[in-house]
Write a structure and sequence with these properties.
By secondary structure, the protein is of the alpha+beta class. The chain contains three helices and twelve strands, in the order H-E-E-E-E-H-E-E-E-E-E-E-E-H-E.
């Protein structure tokens, strides 16, 4: 006869319910300024050696169309890290094995555009997050200031002039695993699943900062 301790099943159910009730975890994926041998990639350029489009073109949170091949200058011939942010536009540049992680886990959330890096034989990729989601949790942020009508930038009214201690509302994200927050697209947000996969790969140059408020 099998004896089951009273309450064991209910405790297991409580643990499962607790896990389900926890908010999904998301992270700001940024480059690690402390990484040894960190290189300084510039903005992507075309065959005419001009910067491709607007410098924020690849970080605006929507798909992009590019005519012709692209390259990233590397005059010092330094070895690229697996993950870097390039130029003034902070465009993510990733190694092929990093691109493979995003292609596997978030194919509907990203574009992966081939780019040549001077001094490197294998092509790297520009990582473009194609989702822009209204999810900034202003109450949970340390500070969040919006542009107003008096700031002289009518096209930015309602967007964020500055955000400190970014926190997002995961209930607004739906099933996206990679995206940029509406109004503050300078931040590239990834899910815990993506974070753990990149860490398992031992990706160099990446750092993760939590953006999910877990206090409630």
């Amino acid at each position: 006869m099998r004896i089951v301790a009273q309450g064991s099943t209910s405790r297991a159910n409580v643990r499962k319910t607790a896990r389900r009730s926890l908010p999904a975890l998301f992270y700001d994926l940024h480059d690690d300024f402390r990484a040894p041998g960190r290189w300084e990639p510039g903005d992507p350029r075309g065959l005419d050696d001009k910067v491709v489009g607007d410098v924020w073109m690849f970080t605006a949170g929507h798909p992009v169309a590019v005519d012709g091949p692209m390259r990233i200058p590397n005059e010092a011939r330094m070895s690229p890290l697996d993950f870097s942010l390039a130029g003034a536009g902070l465009t993510p540049v990733v190694h092929p094995r990093v691109a493979a992680v995003f292609a596997r886990l978030a194919p509907g959330d990203v574009q992966l555009l081939p780019v040549d890096i001077e001094g490197q034989r294998e092509p790297y990729f520009l990582l473009v997050a194609t989702r822009l989601i209204r999810c900034v949790d202003e109450a949970a942020c340390v500070e969040a200031h919006r542009y107003g009508p008096g700031d002289g930038l009518p096209e930015r009214v309602g967007q964020y002039r500055s955000v400190r201690g970014l926190r997002i509302d995961p209930t607004q994200v739906d099933r996206a695993r990679v995206f940029r927050p509406w109004g503050w697209p300078v931040t590239l947000v990834v899910s815990e699943v993506v974070k753990e996969a990149l860490e398992k790969e031992g990706v160099t140059g990446a750092r993760f900062t939590p953006v999910t408020d877990t206090r409630h």
